[in-house]
Specification:
Blueprint: E1 10-11, E2 14-19, E3 26-31, E4 36-40, H1 41-45, H2 55-66, E5 77-78, E6 81-88, E7 91-96, E8 103-107, H3 108-113, E9 134-135, E10 138-145, E11 148-153, E12 160-164, H4 165-169, H5 180-192, H6 206-212, H7 215-229, H8 235-242, H9 246-256, H10 268-282, E13 289-296, E14 299-305, E15 310-315, H11 329-339, E16 343-348, H12 349-352, H13 355-369, E17 374-377, E18 382-385, H14 388-398, E19 408-414, E20 417-425, E21 435-442, E22 446-449, H15 451-463, E23 468-473, H16 480-484, E24 488-494, E25 499-503, E26 508-511, H17 517-522, H18 532-538, E27 542-545, E28 549-554
Parallel strand pairs: 15-16, 17-22, 21-23
Antiparallel strand pairs: 1-2, 2-3, 3-4, 5-6, 6-7, 7-8, 9-10, 10-11, 11-12, 13-14, 14-15, 18-19, 19-20, 20-21, 23-28, 24-28, 25-26, 25-27
């Protein structure tokens, strides 16, 4: 007599459903892939036929084999995934073929074997019942699977986004973010009678609140002030009279189109005149063209030095913040200059108003414009590993971005005088590389023939096994010195522009890391319901983007 086997027990990939009616020695089982079959338990106990042998199991076994060896799957498709690149460590970068085109890093074995078939879209049926419906500013235009909808915002930018069905239906998501300011304003007014949380204990008067939110009334107020003052009112005038932060006032003036009837900020030409004066003091014979529109076929270059193929843009905080410029404005202009073989240098107003940063920029202009330099030859110099305090002092004195922590710092010495530094460390942003070249700088007024090559070779010979990554800030530099060392561009060779927050009236600078929402909430400067942008704008800051970074990689033996 057969020993009863508990129903529901698993053996291998099989789950026992019931005993066969016609043969008590056999049982009806279901495989993990869904196949139903009759099997003798004695065979299963001996380790035979632990799965049905179907296609899914064959694929899984093949996956275990292929994923365990060096096997390039780039470009191959597995279920809903397409492999974009091999990233090492048994992982690959993949993209799902769902409408959202979700990308991610997954284990290679899981993709090849079919254990991971999609980003999740395949596990939940695509529902189309919300297509065409409107939720706040969102209009549903498609389904993205996994309970998500592809939506388009009804704002001026017609932003596309993927939003969960639940958040649309319950009203938690009503726009791409364009309504957040309005919703926050309404909530603050309803609850507290004030539009800024920092002002709850000292709110504006009602007439001041009404004025800033009524364009016709606000315009007449500006016209009356112009008549009374005999000049355009400044932003500071309006801020003092209406008791509002300067950044909030600048945004409101721009939204209403009042830029021409208000004295926004000191004219940029004042700063440009100062920079031109500095250039003339460096080389009085240089040809200097102001406000050139020919080189970039219509786009203006504030200062252009045709003999040096150098252009300089002075970026006033208000005019070059997100109030007036899109995220990639500075990057796109820089790349246009690259294509025309022009080195574009962006000088931001908040940098120029910082005395120490301003001096570093002046030194940099001196180094790239002046032909009068003290020349050294690397063959006459000695490479030494230097201590952190020496490295930090040199980089803070001669590098525009100052000191950055490293694990290896090399100094180039001429007769015991430190004239150049190159530093390396573990990659800060991409750990698939062995090292990152973090800083390279030369003492102002010096030119070193073969200096960077000698420092770099010293490091490669003693420390490097595989690869080095480096980043070059294209707001100031071209990256040509890295190409000379053998660095090359690979996929995604230019990063998304970074940004800082600037409070223009006091030139206060807050980095993107300091302004992370969690940090602001922890300090009591905002709430979980607000975004970083809403909090920082309310605190009086403007968002200014740079041009991004070149991302370059060096691999020993990599030939063109």
């Amino acid at each position: 007599m057969a020993i009863p086997q508990p129903i529901g027990e698993k053996i291998g990939e099989w789950t026992i459903l019931r005993r066969c009616d016609d043969n008590p020695q056999k049982y009806v089982l279901q495989c993990s892939c869904g196949t139903i079959a009759e099997k003798y338990l004695s065979n299963l106990r001996r380790g035979y036929s632990l799965d049905c042998g179907g296609p899914a199991h064959k694929q899984r076994k093949a996956g275990r084999k292929l994923g365990s060896v060096e096997y390039d799957t780039t470009g191959m498709k597995f279920n809903h995934w397409t492999v974009l690149e091999e990233v090492g460590g048994g992982k690959i970068k993949v993209q799902c073929d769902c409408p959202n085109k979700t990308t991610g890093i997954r284990y290679k074995k899981a993709i090849i074997s079919g254990e991971s078939k999609s980003c999740g879209c395949a596990s939940v049926p695509y529902k189309t019942d919300l297509i065409g419906k409107r939720f706040g500013n969102w209009v549903v235009i498609g389904s993205a699977g996994n309970g998500m909808c592809l939506c388009q915002c009804n704002c001026a930018n017609h932003t596309l986004g993927v939003v969960s069905r639940a958040n649309l239906i319950n009203g938690k998501s009503q726009s791409c973010g364009c309504l957040q300011g309005k919703l926050m304003h309404n909530t603050m007014m309803e609850r507290y009678g004030e539009i800024a949380s920092r002002r709850l204990d000292n709110p504006c008067e009602q007439w001041q609140i009404d004025m800033i939110h009524n364009s016709n009334q606000f315009k007449q107020f500006i016209i009356d002030l112009t008549t009374a003052y005999g000049r355009k009112p400044t932003i500071n005038d309006l801020c003092n009279l209406l008791d509002i932060q300067s950044a909030t006032m600048l945004v409101r003036v721009h939204e209403y189109g009042f830029d021409d009837i208000v004295d926004i900020l000191p004219m940029q030409s004042h700063y440009e005149d100062e920079i031109v004066g500095i250039i003339k003091s460096i080389d009085s014979n240089l040809v200097i063209i102001r406000n050139d529109r020919k080189v970039l076929q219509g786009m203006e270059l504030d200062i252009y030095l045709p003999d040096k193929r150098i252009a300089i843009e002075f970026n006033g905080t208000y005019w070059h913040s997100t109030v007036n410029k899109d995220i990639k404005y500075h990057q796109n202009k820089t790349l246009l200059c690259f294509k025309s073989n022009i080195h574009l240098i962006h000088i931001f107003e908040y940098e120029w108003n910082d005395a120490s940063k301003k001096q570093l920029i002046i030194n940099y202009l001196q180094d790239i414009i002046s032909s009068k330099k003290k020349v050294y030859h690397a063959r006459n110099c000695e490479v030494k590993e230097i201590y952190r305090d020496i490295e930090a002092s040199f980089e803070n004195t001669y590098h525009l971005q100052g000191y950055a922590q490293s694990s290896v710092a090399l100094g180039l010495y001429y007769n015991n005088e430190l004239i150049s530094v190159m530093s390396f460390g573990r990659p800060r942003f991409d750990d698939k590389y062995e090292y990152e070249l973090i800083r390279y700088c030369v003492k102002s007024g010096c030119a070193i023939s073969g200096g960077k090559e000698k420092l770099f070779k010293h490091f490669v010979d003693r420390y490097l096994n595989s690869s080095i990554i480096t980043y070059c800030n294209i707001s100031k530099f071209t990256g040509m010195s890295y190409f000379d060392l053998g660095f090359k561009r690979y996929d995604n060779w230019i990063t998304v522009p970074g940004y800082v927050w600037v409070k223009p009236d006091i030139n206060s600078i807050v980095s993107r890391y300091q302004a992370q929402k969690k940090n602001l909430v922890q300090k009591g400067l905002g709430t979980d319901d607000e975004t970083e942008d809403i909090i920082m704008t309310r605190l009086g800051y403007l968002k200014v983007y740079d041009a991004g970074n070149l991302k370059l990689v060096y691999k020993p033996g990599d030939k063109e």
